[in-house]
Amino acid sequence: MTIRMAFIVAGAYAALKSQVARINALNVYPVPDGDTGTNMLLTLESIMKESKSRSFENVEAAVKAGARAALMGARGNSGVILSQMIRGGCEVLARRATFTAEDFAAALEGAQERAYASTRQPVEGTMLTVIKDAATAAREAIRKAEGRALDLQSVVKVAALEAHASVKRTPQKLQVLREAGVVDAGGLGVAVILDGIYAVLSGEKVEVPEDDAETSDTPDLEAVHAGEEAWGYCTEFMVTGFSGEETSFRDHIESVGKSVLVIADEDLVKVHIHTQDPGSVMSYAGRFGRLSGVKVDDMEAQVESRLSDGDEPAGEPGHVAQGEVAVVVASRGAGNRRLFEEFGAYVVEGGQGANPSAEDFTRAVEEVVRASGAKTVLILPNNKNIIPTAEQVNDLVDVEVRVVPTKAIVSGLSAMIAFDPAESGESVEGEMLALLAELGTVEVTQAIRAASVDGFEVAEGSYLALINGRVGAVGKTVEAVALEAARLLLADGGDLVTLLRGEGLEDEELDRIVAAVESMDGDVEVEVREGGQPLYPLQMAAE
Questions:
Q1: Distances from the Cα of 420 to the Cαs of 89, 322, 323, 406, 463, in angstroms?
Q2: Going by fewer Cβ within 10 Å, which terminus of the chain is more open, N or C?
Q3: Which CATH number fits domain 319-437: 3.40.50.720, 3.40.50.880, 2.170.270.10, 3.40.50.510?
Q4: pLDDT tens, 105-116?
């Protein structure tokens, strides 16, 4: 059976894209970092890129390609969990030669099992619950048929309707959703994906009951292409029917460019490279099979555009410290990039609202190992939503990768004090974790909507301080909430406060904050660093 994987994935992608803004807005905390829908969309986009203009002769070939593409493209917590759902479903379908109603129900069960197994502490009232309820509904529909054959469309529709009903119930299962007055964003994403699958199979929309209905726009199948950050030409392509020797092929590709990623899967090889001569690279690769999925972007133009906006290009190998251990960090802001590079870290651009993918981290790890000779690479995600993505990387590279779970940029900068490239990875990781255990952090941002969260009533447009990840102060100005947060942090002790200045904080207000913090305790030293991070005008650490 010939399967055009792109056909079904495009339906799911189109449905999700039409709802991505609404899903992003369903953030428990009313801060401008909602990116659940975007992360799920980019995970599906990775499958679309892999399958575009390709047909597969059997289910096994299609689902294996889809599972790997989802993993490589996964971003953020929601994207990683979705990639595991896709992987679980694909593992089931790979053992089957058909795609019937029974196969679909089994695939949903596989998705549920893999998603729950990949989550350290599964929480009900999330996208996990939604996929479980959808799988249960599909299986129950087949059971009730009592041997009568059900068509695939009918079972997909049942699963989609139950997914929407499950989304509506998520606040009943999770208090934080109930307090915030929202449903689970990832769960809604799962329901919308099932809508898209049904639409592409039947040519009809799922008629969600009126009180469950979500707004919808006309689906747009245009892929979202993220800009690469490097010089020369970012070149990507696949070699199908690969007939060469993998090691020698990889060695040659690595010798003619940088930021090289060569992923082999049986007779399919995916290549990513930054090179000044993409034509010669593709000419060489073309000797070993048929090229497809070719994409060439001019990095010079993209870098010039970024620099004109005050940002800097991505980290290069020359910034990386040589030794036994190397560090890769995710960060945003030109000042933060400089600070991390001065410590000897390799910076991957990403953070709130722009989560890097597993492929981004994989590429960075492989490049930093080539540049530093490190045996171990530590990843500092600097954002709670990026931690799950970073945790996938160890299975994708040949070097040991350890994740130090930093949840803010200011935490990552504090942890870098313990970095010594001459020490072992285990030793540096232990010292970083010890520093983080004694660290208190504050992130100040502006509320994008009204909400009731962590015992605070937050008005739209007001400022709030997240103290160690929870709302601890609310006020009308950055100064007001920053000083209240500083007072709470210093109540537990501390002799050094680091202020990391982001976009939008004026000199006069920063000066007043510094003076007020210093006056709280005569023994407290205050350091100010220019970070330039968006969305968060001020981050603070006390140690």
A1: 43, 10, 8, 18, 38
A2: N
A3: 3.40.50.510
A4: 999 999 999 999
